[in-house]
Design goal:
CATH architecture of the largest domain: Sandwich
Distance between the termini: 40 Å
Number of strands: 29
Largest sheet: 6 strands, mixed
Number of helices: 6
Number of domains: 2
Strand order of the largest sheet: 20-18-22-27-24-25
CATH superfamily of the largest domain: Cupredoxins -  blue copper proteins
CATH class of the largest domain: Mainly Beta
Strand content: 35-45%
Shape: globular
Bound molecules: copper (II) ion
Radius of gyration: 26 Å
CATH topology of the largest domain: Immunoglobulin-like
Length: about 475
């Protein structure tokens, strides 16, 4: 008696699968793969939703139970990937490198299959192409051939791995404390370096001290500050520095137009406390800034800032590339896109994965957290927000003398502007730093603040947590 519905379900699955196969054959550079071909390699994945994250989970064989498993195949083989909708949301699976795209699965239990030829060696991505799903976790690696060859493919034209230019957000400098004004010397070096932009891509950054943003400089109001700016002899451009904390010609830029291999400097007295942006101010200024030449200088008030448990240094910027967002290899600067103000990348601390993979922002429940946040830009205003938190204090517009705003959800930060925010973390989990112009997440703009510690159900609990008791 049970056989009837089972047979029915089986034939429905065949139908669905057959359907999916037909549409899945738009594969591999229009080289037609005959419909009756037997795949050399096949995988089955199931979609899953857990803790607000989406994933592909291995369904059978060696990958069973693995989240976003590495899939691999020898070069030149026919690959079949079957996808089962396990959560009832709409999903698909694509391997863009080989032109493989499944139909969208709309209902739980629906199945689609892609078949394509693994036509070249390298490490590629498979992911769900529904907007936001890749960012929510639906992405894995598809490796063709030996992985050693794959990493060679990752390298840029210079054939060596790109440098890490992304600034460590925990590099927030030393507080000035209660000291009196003194003489301070700040040595900075400008250089042009090929740096890691995202997984598999790189960019020719222009930098202060080989990082984007440049170092967080920390002085006291009333100090005698000497800035020495050296331009590395390998540079191809003149560079300079304009610090918004400087009262004087061009914020220093008028006397620091430095040719490659040379050094120039000046001395200034910071007259007002505050959190200020600095940047290169050599024409075309917007190009120098876009390429990474920005940072912040904190002028602490007499007596210093109130001590906190954790300080972080984060800056937002934009990159304008000839290639589309997500293209692999060395990306090329686009003047037209800069002038049109159409960035291909929005980034925190210089790279797409700077604050999600390369560096960690971590705190313990009960910590007070301070973020120095600025916008290098050069063009876009940020609507800075931390998902799942509110700012206890916002030192708006970088002013440390005006009373802070209290209990703020989202705050505006202009290009060439900076703020200081403070908040206590009360509950463990992963909090996301974003610009609430959230389309920019899709262009690379997100960071994680991970809070460790015990849950407090009086602050937050899911309804099923109560039901389970
Ligand atoms: Cu999806
Ligand atoms: Cu410059
Ligand atoms: Cu400026």
């Amino acid at each position: 008696m049970n056989n009837v519905p089972r047979r029915l379900i089986a034939s429905m699955l065949v139908l669905l699968t057959g359907f999916a196969c037909a549409s899945g054959f738009a594969a591999q550079d229009s080289k037609a793969i005959p419909g009756d071909v037997t795949p050399d390699v096949s995988y089955t994945l199931r979609t899953a939703l857990t803790d607000g994250q989406l994933a592909f989970v291995g369904e059978t064989g060696a990958i069973k139970g693995q989240v976003n498993p590495d899939l691999s195949a020898p070069e030149g083989t026919i690959v079949q990937i079957k996808l089962i909708n396990g959560d009832g949301l709409i999903h698909d699976i694509v391997v863009p490198e080989f032109g493989a795209e499944s139909e969208r699965l709309n209902t739980q239990g629906a199945v689609a299959t892609i078949v394509f030829m693994a036509g070249k060696n390298g490490t590629f991505e498979y992911y769900c192409s529904l907007p936001g799903h890749k960012a929510m976790g639906m992405v894995g690696r598809f490796i063709v051939g030996e992985e050693k060859q794959a990493s060679a493919d990752d390298a840029t034209t210079s054939s060596k791995a790109p440098a890490t230019v992304s600034q460590d957000p925990t590099a927030a400098g030393q507080p000035v404390g209660t000291r009196a004004p003194q003489d301070v010397t700040l040595d900075l070096e400008t250089s042009e370096v090929v740096g890691h932009l995202a997984d598999g891509s790189s960019y020719q950054y222009w930098t202060f001290n080989r990082k984007v943003p440049g170092p967080l400089l920390r002085v006291r109001v009333g100090d005698q500050v000497t800035v020495n700016l050296s331009n590395d002899e390998s540079s191809e451009h003149v560079h300079s520095i304009d610090l918004h904390a400087v009262t004087g010609p061009g914020g220093g830029a008028a006397v620091t137009q430095v040719a490659p291999g040379q050094t120039k400097g000046f001395t200034f007295k910071p007259l007002k406390p505050g959190i200020y942006v600095y940047h290169c101010a050599t024409p075309m200024v917007a190009q120098h800034i876009a390429n990474g030449m920005y940072g912040m200088i904190l002028v602490e008030p007499e007596g210093g800032l109130t001590p906190v448990d954790k300080e972080f240094y984060v800056m937002q910027g934009e990159l304008y590339t000839l290639e589309r967002h997500g293209t692999r290899g060395l990306q090329t600067f686009s003047l037209d896109k800069l002038l049109d103000e159409h960035p291909d990348y929005f980034i925190f601390n210089g790279a797409v994965d700077a604050l999600t993979e390369t560096h960690k922002l971590e705190a313990e429940v009960g910590d007070t957290v301070r973020i120095f946040f600025g916008v290098g830009g050069p063009n876009a205003t940020s609507s800075f927000h931390v998902i799942g938190e509110t700012f206890d204090k916002v030192y708006s517009q970088g002013s440390l003398t005006a009373p802070p705003l209290t209990d703020v959800q989202t705050t505006t930060v202009a290009p060439g502007g900076a703020i200081m925010v403070e908040f206590k973390v009360d509950y463990p989990g992963q909090y996301k730093l974003v610009d609430h112009a959230l389309a920019r997440v899709e262009k690379g703009l997100v960071g994680f603040l991970t809070v460790h510690g015990d849950k407090n159900s009086a602050i937050f609990h899911a309804s099923q947590d109560v039901d389970a008791r």
